[in-house]
Write a structure and sequence with these properties.
3 helices; about 100 residues
Length: about 100
């Protein structure tokens, strides 16, 4: 035996809020459009993306740590109101 497992490899990303690694499908991709953060639930928007767990706690940590300007390699604060609305709506719909 070669010691290899036959499990499928899944891409992993790091949440910019809590800094934990998770499967890419479990995280929400966020993209900067101008000076605003936009949720990219389909993962098709162009540009650099930052990943965050779709929960308020991780989003608040990312904002407090100023993780988005670093992740996007951009200047200044980014408006996260749209992402906060998206995450709050997702939390309401979760069972």
């Amino acid at each position: 035996m070669s010691g290899r497992t036959h499990a499928c490899a899944r891409p992993e990303r790091t949440c910019v809020g809590c800094r934990e690694r998770a499967a890419k499908t479990d995280l929400l991709r966020i993209v900067a459009v101008g000076d605003e953060c936009v949720p990219d639930d389909r993962g098709t928007l162009p540009g650099r993306g930052a990943y965050v767990h779709p929960v308020t706690v991780c989003l608040d940590l990312a904002v407090r740590r100023r993780a988005f300007p670093r992740a996007f390699r951009g200047r200044g604060p980014f408006d996260t109101a749209g992402v906060q609305r998206y995450v709050q709506e997702a939390e309401r719909q979760a069972p």
